[in-house]
Amino acid sequence: MSGLLELRNVTKVFGGGIFSKNRTTALEDLSFTLYTDQSSITSIVGESGSGKTTVARLLLGMIAPTKGHISYKGKDVAEMSRAERKEFRREVQPIFQDPFEVFNPFYKVDHVLKVPISKFKLADSEAEERSMISDALEMVGLRPDETLGRYPHQLSGGQRQRIMVARALLLKPRVILADEPVSMVDASLRATILESIHSLNRELGISILYITHDLTTAYQISDNILVLYRGSVAEVGSVDAVIKDPKHPYTQLLVGSIPQPDPELAWGEGRTSFVPVANRAVNGCKFADRCDSVMDLCWNNVPPRYQLERHRVATCHLFGDSPVMTGSDVSQVFAARTEVSRPTPSGK
Ligand code: SF4
After folding, report:
1. What's the CATH number for 3-238+323-339?
2. How far is the CA of 291 from the centre of ligand 1 (A)?
3. Is the CB of 168 under 6 A from ligand 1?
4. Distance from C-alpha of 147 to C-alpha of 110, rounded to nearest angstrom
5. Which of 79, 135, 239, 294 has a 20 to 30 Å separation from 311 between CA atoms?
6. Would you say 40 and 337 are in contact if contact means Cβ atoms under 8 Å apart?
7. Between residues 126 and 260, which one has the greater pLDDT?
8. With contact defined as beta carbons under 8 Å apart, do 218 and 57 qualify?
9. Which pTM was predicted?
10. Rounded-to-integer distance, Cα 83 and Cα 281, Å
11. Ligand 1 lined by 318 (C-beta under 6 Å)
């Protein structure tokens, strides 16, 4: 398999000089690959401050890594020629959290769809442009006659976000980076948008990187999951294994905090606390001051990534009897894409 989009030992530090106290390591030594011959949906999950949005911004070339390399089709993004960068910009498309920011309120929504067509010279005539736009809108479940000719404020948040998915589609991307695409959308519309993103992968073979704090939707649409905690990998593997049987104490905390509908429990009962369990300096595992299972060695020794199963890695001293993962690319434990029996985003 050859790599399409790759991160190699990427670290990103924000703020100050080497000796500044304001330096924050947003991402530490992350390597993974999206492959050309196997499109899949990979979720990157974590709380705010976990580094997940930093991954998206790095992959889009919006910020440069402090250490390590990002490459597309084998070419380092930092060393691309103008033509290669143009191809990269067309084939790796973002879908952001807040679609309203992308729209100019003075232009009809048609504008955001026409701009990429003219910028990348995708249509030879106005008729072809109209047909491309209609096809893209229909693919995301929007009726062109009810959508075009309107101003952004005349459409719902869900419709605006689906227009952004349609816009990404017009460019025939190989990869879509969806950063919290449904977090600002009504619950009733979330399923429709996630369904659109899911079918882009299943029907058009577009690789999706789904970045979210929401484990429920990550479970519903993805094949594999990468859990980040304060810029480091906590657990990686097939989404079924990780969500149904989380091994890392942080993943257990996240999964335990998903609200469960249980009439026997009072509100809040049965949910896992996020309160720190200790208050001391941490030089080893970053999760030590919040971990119920913390051991003496955790405070001063950074755990390696242990390979627990073929499709599972956890960065935790609890698994010291397991072999240490070889190499640094965590996507080596990703499971192949399967037609899963999990509920689809629409619940069908
Ligand atoms: Fe908890 Fe130690 Fe594992 Fe970190 S290494 S998650 S502190 S048990």
Report:
1. 3.40.50.300
2. 6
3. no
4. 8
5. 294
6. yes
7. 126
8. no
9. 0.89
10. 49
11. yes
